[in-house]
Amino acid sequence: DQVLHIVPETFQQAQHLQLLCSTLMLDLWKPLLPEDIRAGEDLHVRVPAPLVQEVKDSLDQHMISYRVLIPDVQKLVDQSMPRERSSHRQVSGGYVYTEYHPMEEIYQWMTQIQKNNSELVTQHFLGKTFENRTMYYLQISQPSNKTKKIIWMDCGIHAREWISPAFCQWFVKEILQNYKSDPKIRRFLQNLDLYVLPVLNIDGYIYSWEEDRLWRKNRSPYENGTCYGTDLNRNFNSSWGSVGISFNCSSDIFCGSGPESEPETRAVAQFIKSRKSDILCYLTIHSYGQLILTPYGSTTKPPHNNEELMKVAKEAAAALTGKYGTSYRVGSTALILYSNSGSSRDWVHTIGIPFSYTFELRDTGTHGFILPANQIQPTCEETM
Amino acid sequence: DIDDAGHKYCLELELEDVLDKGRTVLCAAEVLYPLGSTSTAPEVQVTAQGELRSTEEADKEFYNRIRSLEKELVAENIPDSHGNVPPELEPIHLLAWAASGYVIWQNSTENTKFHLAQVQHVKQVKRSDEDLQFDYVLLLHEMVSQEVIPWEVTVLWHPQRGARVSRD
């Protein structure tokens, strides 16, 4: 937790701070109440650790200058009082990768990962969700003076597929833990940068923790707030709205009001578009089904580089099976799964990124979306 | 295989007992999906070679345990969000699985792919005869539409007579 010292210069800035403090329910030290925040007067506010980045982003966006008065509240408390043991289990390391984590803990994890691996990892702002939560991706990059090609991986586009964000976190941990000892990883990072988005559909993910474990879509309201959620993986601009979708909001495959109608979709699409000449490979992680899917979902006509796409995918599936015998099928969505349009994988390929794959992780239906936590390790190890 | 009355599939399957891995039973099945009508269940013929292990003792233990309950059993969310099933609810879970097999069979077409996603709710109903009765709400996931559909199913079970499904 940090305490910030802010002096709002204008009435607008004071208003924004009032809104920020009351919406996020921040702990105001001076003044005591949001309505007493005034331009020209000192503001001291304690911001809980998971919100620090978000609050600072917001201040930056509104050009409100601030100073960090207390960089670590807990440390100060500890110094002034004896304590038996630390209750900050997650923040002080020892993150449990074999458990599913709620979003708040994932936010904290990202901050810790960057802090503990600052030579390789930087956390970046990607965009905001419908419910105004910040989307962050992690960039794992070996410092060098040459521009490197990028491999992008996103997890958690569908809320209920918990094994997916679990895999992204595991992946990051594996890379960073073994970077020094594994020459393969070092060689990898010499020539490539890894960009990982641990949870794309943050609002949906939180909803699946708090309200409905089997929720899939995002949480944007339609029809006057009587119906919620767009299937983000039907919302991209690739043959949008043509096949394998529904125009009815109450459907789990509702494709939205138009291509890229959802802020989460736009955040990802904008970024990928801006860096497309450098992105070599796009991976999007889902469950379940044990499949490696290649473009396209909207047509059975194969993509121009289908041979190469299939060859690489088959090698990946073979390597995966080699670990624990888990069998994966490989092929285009339209051929081996079902028809769908508006998927991120298809869109990415149509704008020119050569390698684009959807992974459907364990299992094949026995547990489906509710994969027991004891399968996190083997699933992640074999997928790695 | 294609017929005139619909589409017939001939399958060879291996059945494995989830609780007794390593032992498998070979089955041959014929499934006929009727032409046109999507409200008729496919016709299924199965023959199995070999035997699955006896569950007589476990059946009896479960039966007696439930019969001796003072209050009728009620449970929700099996498994829980993290995939856990408390050991005493495992037989309830397995029974739900069997019941879901029946529901899936009754509602399958060539364009559906169902799996049991979760038991949303189960309530035991005490009976005057020897059967155990469980009223389930099962959540079935359908792959093509991606929908999760709640389904009310009443299951009767008896150690010798096995499981029977009657729908609400």
TrEMBL record, chain A:
Its cofactor is Zn(2+). It is a lipid-anchor; GPI-anchor. One of its GO terms (biological process) is proteolysis. One of its GO terms (cellular component) is side of membrane. Its main location: membrane. Residues 99-384 form the Peptidase M14 domain. It is found in: Apical cell membrane. Keywords: Carboxypeptidase, Cell membrane, Disulfide bond, Glycoprotein, GPI-anchor, Hydrolase, Lipoprotein, Membrane, Metal-binding, Metalloprotease, Protease, Signal, Zinc. One of its GO terms (molecular function) is zinc ion binding. The active site is at residue 360. Belongs to the peptidase M14 family. Carboxypeptidase which preferentially cleaves C-terminal acidic residues from peptides and proteins. Can also cleave C-terminal hydrophobic amino acids, with a preference for small residues over large residues. PANTHER family: CARBOXYPEPTIDASE O, PROTEASE FAMILY M14 CARBOXYPEPTIDASE A,B. This is Carboxypeptidase O. The gene is Cpo.
From TrEMBL, chain B:
The gene is Lxn. Pfam families: LXN. PROSITE patterns: CYSTATIN_LXN. GO terms for cellular component: extracellular space. The keyword Repeat applies. Belongs to the protease inhibitor I47 (latexin) family. Keywords: Protease inhibitor, Repeat. InterPro entries: CYSTATIN_LXN, Cystatin_sf, Latexin. Transmembrane segments: none annotated. GO terms for molecular function: metalloendopeptidase inhibitor activity. This is LXN protein. The keyword Kinase does not apply. Residues 1-57, 74-168 form the Cystatin LXN-type domain.
